[in-house]
Amino acid sequence: MSFVQGIPDAQGFRRTASIESLAQEHNLSVNTLYKLAQREDWKGQRHKFDSEYQGKLDQQRIKDMAEESRKFDSACLSIAKGLISRVGANLRDAQDKDATEFTPSQLDSLAGAALKAQKFAKLALGENTDNISINADIRDDNSFRRAMEMLDELEQAKRSGSVTTTH
Predict the structure, then answer these.
(1) How many angstroms separate the first and last alpha carbons of the chain?
(2) Concatenated DSSP letters for 12-32?
(3) Would you state the pLDDT for residue 46?
(4) How high does pLDDT run on average in the chain?
(5) How far apart are CA 35 and CA 41, in angstroms?
(6) What does the pLDDT read at residue 63?
(7) Considering the entire predicted model, what is its pTM?
(8) How far apart are CA 38 and CA 155, in angstroms?
(9) H-helix segments, the chain
(10) Which end of the chain lies in a sparser environment, N or C, as judged by fewer CB atoms within 10 Å?
(11) Whole-number CA gyration radius for the chain
């Protein structure tokens, strides 16, 4: 058992015994123990146990990391909500006090803070924060075909010697 599965040490690491140490511990011949280990496929059993044990550890790590990620995202979302709330409170306070209008730089700072908080929250929620815009129709290759035809004509003209420069 200690050859196949090992025994946890004081730090929690699994330590496997060698056949030699097991033979000495149990007062057996090393050759006899080697034959027994070979006949019962101790190395194969150890490899199978190691793979299964490592798989269980990996699954636990994945669960732990997912939980930490969820907690972190929740904290980030709370921070973003607080920032947006603070910007809103500043704007409401200014309106309630009939204060003079904000200067353009103050409004820009408040808007920038709100935008950053919004992006921060969207990242915490796993959303994309950049606008992606593609204005191309990949099925319409007429422009590409015309460009290639012009390049072919230019190459043909250069070969015939009727064109000396290309710019």
Answers:
(1) 81
(2) S-EEPPPHHHHHHHTT--HHH
(3) 87
(4) 80
(5) 10
(6) 93
(7) 0.49
(8) 74
(9) 19-25, 30-39, 42-96, 104-124, 142-160
(10) C
(11) 36
Q: Which residues contact 8 (CB under 8 A, 6 or more apart)?
A: 14, 15
How do beta strands 7-8 and 14-15 pair?
antiparallel
Residue 136 has what pLDDT? 53
Residue-wise pLDDT for 61-78, tens only, equals 999 999 998 898 888 888
Q: How far apart are CA 82 and CA 86, in angstroms?
A: 6
For every residue of 62-85, DSSP letters joined together read HHHHHHHHHHHHHHHHHHHHHHHH
Q: Measure the CA–CA gap between 70 and 104, rounded to whole angstroms.
A: 38
Q: Tell me the two tokens of residue 90.
A: 């500043």
Q: How distant is the alpha carbon of residue 69 from its chain centre?
A: 11
In angstroms, the CA 35 to CA 14 distance is 25
Asked if residue 21 lies in contact with residue 27, where contact means CB atoms within 8 angstroms, the answer is no
Phi, psi of 10 (to 5 degrees): -60, -30
